[in-house]
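Model it.
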Amino acid sequence: MLDLIGDIHGHADELERLLQKLGYKKVSGVYGHPDRKVLFVGDYIDRGPKIRETLQIVKGMTEMGHAIALMGNHEYNAICFHLQNKEGGHLRKHWIKNIIQHYETLKQFQNRQKEYNEYIEWFLTLPLFYEDKNIRAVHACWNEKNITFLKGKLKQNRLTKLLIEEANTTNDTLNNAIEQTLKGKELRLPDGITFADKDGNLRKDIRYKWWEDPLKMTFETISVHHPVENLPSVSIKASTLDDLSYYKAVERPVFFGHYWLKNQPMLFKPNVCCLDYSVAKGGLLVAYRFDGEKELQQDNFVMA
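Modeled.
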């Protein structure tokens, strides 16, 4: 009896409308439901107009047992942007691109440094992934190799400051596992081909559909980005990938966000569901009502 909700990015008004549409009511300032619980898949901050209000809703629901909140890449980036390294500076460099991405959050916490610091500490309590006998959930990519590795490093699927420092300074394996889990798997484009992402940054890599068999796809069909012009319609070779695994049809349903999809929500497969439909770019805030079904149903999407 879970309601899984995609990336919010500071759009608290849409979140409240969605929760109300799902039958949640506010009691003593916190949304709850007598029979159901929310599972948020991450990305609560940055971009939107009501970041503090969004965090208040999500954190309040988790503290009262009405929700589970996963870490998104934006929460991870905020932690690294905040934490200093031993050589001086910060684990996530304060470059123009990174400042612009985090700007709305910093602006909305102006003169509220103590509150901001408390939320950074709360971000550290958020698990990177969730699974039970019925479903799996993650912010960007469920890759069994990465998940198994992280289970051996994390306690209760949570990072610590020491592990984050290790990932960003000395342990490439740990860093890659975290990056792919929270940001997705990437594939380098052939030489000379680039594209501008949604923020105008020039990219040489595409985020790809980790739930598809890559050896049956082309660069054009495996890309999650929409639309990207001039992607080559040529088959992907095994030598270009570090991992040939993909999410099989026999696996339990998996839910994730992150990919800035457009238009109306659609299932990728009967066991693969993305919940990010670009609310921060004028799109929809999307939930999926899960009631234990082994094959996901298109009619179970709810939008605000």
